[in-house]
Amino acid sequence: MLDGRHVAEHLEETKAALRRRSEEAARALEPAEGLLSKRRVLIHATEKLQAERNNASQEMGKLAKGPDKAAFEARRGELKTLSDEVKKHEAELAELERAVEDLLLGVPNLPHPSVPDGTTEADNVVRRTFGEAKSYDFEPKPHWDVGAALGVLDFERAAKLSGARFSVLWGAGARLSRALIGFMLDLHTKEHGYTEVLPPFLVRGEALRGTGQLPKFEADLFKTQRSDPEDPSALYLIPTAEVPVTNLHGDEILDGATLPRAYTAYTPCFRSEAGSYGKDVRGLIRQHQFDKVELVRFVEPSQALAQLDLLCSHAEEVLKRLELHYRVVELCAGDLGFGAEKTFDIEVWLPSQKAYREISSCSSFGDYQARRAKIRYRPEPKAKPRLAATLNGSALAVGRTLVAILEQNQCSDGTVSIPKALVPYFGADNIPLP
RNA sequence: GGAGGAGUGGCCGAGUGGUCUAAGGCAGCGGUUUUGAAAACCGCCGAGGGUGCAAGCCCUCCGAAGGUUCGAAUCCUUUCUCCUCCGCCA
Question: What proportions of chain A, in percent to the nearest 5, are helix, strand and coil?
Fold first, then answer.
C-alpha cells in the first residue's frame, strides 16, 4: 500500500510513476486527492470536539461527588449533545478512513525509477544468460512425453481425482521432486544463510491482504469453506509461501540489528488460475497445485535493491548447480506484479518449445507490503520504528525445475540424466526406462 | 464438537463506571556516587495519528469489532487467540 500522506503531498509525481505501469493504474488514484484533504479537515474537527468532551467529563467527575445535583443534571443534558456530535464526527471519519484505505489497497506499487519502460512482456530486458542450449542429435520431446515414457508423470489419473491442471508423480518422478526440495533447502540454509521455515498452508484473508493478493485478486485463490458459506473467517490455501512467511513478522517491530533476515520455506502452492484457459494446457507448467521453495528477506529500505541482486543470485545458484541453461530478464514497468517495485524473472530453457520459460520471479516490494502488514524495525535501540522492505523469490518452482531436467537432460534412448549435484539426493545418476 | 477460564505497555502484574493523565515491579537507557564494578538513589523508558521550524501541545489505542452512558480497561453483545477438562482424531 502506498503512503497516503506521501500521495497527498506528491499527487502528480505519484500519478506519473503509476502511469509507467498503465493508464488504469494512474486512474485508480484519481479520487485520492479529494478524500485525503477532506480527511485532514475532519480529523481536525473531530479531535477538537474530543478534547472538549474529555475536559468536560473530568469536571463531571468532580461535580458528581459534590452536593449540587441540579447543576450536574443540567450539565449532563448539555454534554449529551456534545457527545452525540463527537460520535457523528467519529463515524464520518471512520467512513472516510475506510474509503481512503479501500482506494489505496487497490493501487499498485510504484515502479522503481531503475525499472525499464514498457507495457508488455515484449518490453522486458534480458540482463544475462547462463550456459547455452544443448544440441541434440534427435528431436527433443516435450516433458509430458518424456515423463509418460518413463512412467513418472501421470495426468490422466490426476484428472480422475481432481480434474484438469493436476498431476501425479510416480516412482522416480516423486523421488526427483523430493530430491529437488531437499537440495534447494540445503543450499539455501547451509550456504546462503537462510533460516528454514515450515509455515501453515492455510491462512486468513488478513495475511493475503498484507502481501497484496487481497482484496484485488480473490479470483486467483482457493478459498475454503466450513459449515457456513458466508463465514468471514474462512481460510485460503496459500498461492505462494511468500504469504505466510512475509506475514510472520506482521504487526511486529524488529530489532534493526537483526536485519537482514532471510527465510526459506518449502510449501505447496495453490492457484485457481482463473482466466488462464488456453495457456499451457498440457504438462506441468501451469497447475492448480505445485511445489515451490521460496526465499523471503526483510531488509532496511536503503538496501532493497542490493538485497534483490543477492536474493536473485541465490535463486540462480540453484540452476547453476543443476547445470541448467537459463537467462535473467528484468520486467518492464508495465509487466510488474501488483505489489512489486522491481522484478527479475529467471527463465529456463525448454528445448521442446525452443523457448525460455519462467522458473523464478524475484522481487523487491520496498515498503509496500510492510505498510499493509505493519512490518517495522527499529534502526537504533531508541529510534522510531520504520517500515522494513520485503523481498521474495522462488528458488525454485519445483515442478518447473523437474520439467527443465526432463527436457534439457533427455537422452536419445529415452532416459534422463540426473545433474551431478542432485545425485546424492536422488540416489542414482539417471532415470531409466521402466 | 461440548463445558469452563483467561487476554492490560518489551516482560510480569494491579485495576469491577469518574484526576486511568493505567499503580507497582523486572528488563533497558541516562545520571549521581565509586579507582572500576556492584549496590543505593534520581530521571527517562509503547504504538499510530494531527499540529508546529522546534520544544511541545492535542487525539486514538487495555486482543478485535459494535453497543450502553455525560463519562468505559471496567457493564452488555459479537468475534479472535490462548489455557484446562470432555469427546473425536494422527
Answer: 45, 20, 35
Asked if residue A35 lies in contact with residue A79, where contact means CB atoms within 8 angstroms, the answer is no
Terminal Cα distance for chain A, rounded: 53
Distance CA A274, CA A52 (A): 54
Regarding an ipTM greater than 0.90, the answer is no
Please say if the pLDDT value at position A116 is more than 90.
yes
Cell 544475462, residue located: A128
Interstrand relation of A375-378 and A153-154 (parallel, antiparallel or unpaired) = unpaired
A102's grid cell: 479501500
Q: Which pLDDT score, from 0 to 100, does residue A135 have? A: 93
What's the distance, CA A52 to chain centroid? 45
Helices (H) and strands (E) in chain A, counts: 14, 17
CA A233 → C1' B16, Å? 32
Q: Is residue A166 a contact partner of residue A268, using CB atoms and an 8 Å limit?
A: no
Q: How far is the CA of A244 from the C1' of B68 (A)?
A: 39
| Residue A372 annotated among the catalytic residues of the structure | no
DSSP label of A191: I
Tell me which DSSP letter residue A223 carries.
B
Query: How many whole angstroms separate alpha carbon A281 and alpha carbon A264?
Result: 30
Q: Is A238 helix (H, G, I), strand (E, B) or coil?
A: coil
Q: Rounded to whole angstroms, how far apart are CA atoms A282 and A102?
A: 38
Helix (H, G, I), strand (E, B) or coil at A22: coil
Residues with CB under 7 A from strand B: A 5, 40, 43-44, 46-48, 50-51, 53-58, 60-61, 64, 76, 79-80, 82-83, 94, 226, 233, 253, 376, 381-382, 384-385
| Cβ neighbourhood burial of A224 (10 Å; 0-12, 13-18, 19+) | exposed
Full-model pTM: 0.93
CA dist list (Å): A390 to A89, A302, A305, A379, A420: 37, 12, 11, 16, 34
- CA-closest candidate to residue A275, choices A354, A338, A221: A221
* Distance CA A199 to C1' B27 in A: 31
Q: Alpha-carbon distance A148 to A379, whole Å?
A: 55
Question: Higher pLDDT residue, A94 or A365?
Answer: A365
Scanning every strand, the nucleotide with its C1' closest to A385's CA turns out to be: B47
Q: Which helix (H) or strand (E) holds A299?
A: strand A289-299
Could you read off the pLDDT of A258-286 as tens digits, one per residue?
889 999 999 999 999 877 777 888 999 99
